[in-house]
């Protein structure tokens, strides 16, 4: 009986996430171009024809059109349905892990911000400050709400201070890494937007998970960057967006941070006993 109650809820959550993903596509395309996010309505980027309502259905609208504009037949990027599907999947994973809770609502927002920022960084090598700043504010507000629901005013203050300290730590940590990278490579290693994204992540995750996210981001970035240089895809002096790796580290820390940190700390306990 329980599974029959859960399946409709999962479908609704996935559909909600895919719909949010559709809006994220708008943010990713329009925000760097300084265009309105609300007007004009969704339209073909080639002939500018407004999309019909059934063409705007997340994922299925693209499939219905067979990846082409219904008016001019120009190809529509596969990235649009992929982002919609990915957002729906992320929403579903959060719901399955946290259920109906404040954490679910908050982490839906957090992952949406990470996805939008990582895609914009891939496209433009920038991390728009309106997104990082608003994400930081939302993260601190989330900590307030989470603390209030669990421990009242004292909990709200404690969680807010934890988020604020982690945000400052995020800025300092990325700035130190950028300075060290600049000294080693003789050129700017990271942009200012990376440290602001790290601060935003700190507000949501807290300092422990933030350190894990930073480590995972650096490790994955080094692996991908080193592999790309070895294959001749990138040159040693060619810049590479770091935002997607930070976002990946933040998402992994969100879902598996406590497990990974506990496993890491247990190694020290075992070593001490030995």
Task: Write the SSE topology.
Blueprint: H1 2-30, H2 60-64, H3 79-98, H4 102-124, H5 129-185, H6 192-205, H7 207-230, H8 243-273
Overall description:
It is a single chain. This protein has 274 residues and is mainly alpha-helical. The chain folds into two domains: 1-100, no CATH class; 101-274, no CATH class. It is built from eight helices and no strands. Helix 1 crosses helix 3 (79-98), helix 1 runs parallel beside helix 4 and helix 4 crosses helix 8 (243-273). The longest helix has 57 residues, at 129-185.
The rough form would be described as globular
Which value, in Å, is the CA radius of gyration?
21 Å
> Which spans of ≥5 residues are poorly predicted at pLDDT below 50?
none
Helix content: over 70%
Number of strands: 0
Order of helices and strands: HHHHHHHH
**Global mean pLDDT:** 86
List the total number of helices.
8
Key terms:
single chain, 274 residues, mainly alpha, 2 domains, 8 helices, 0% strand, globular
Kindly summarize this structure in a few lines.
This protein has 2 domains: 1-100, no CATH class; 101-274, no CATH class. Helices cover 74% and strands 0% of the residues. The chain has 8 helices and no strands.
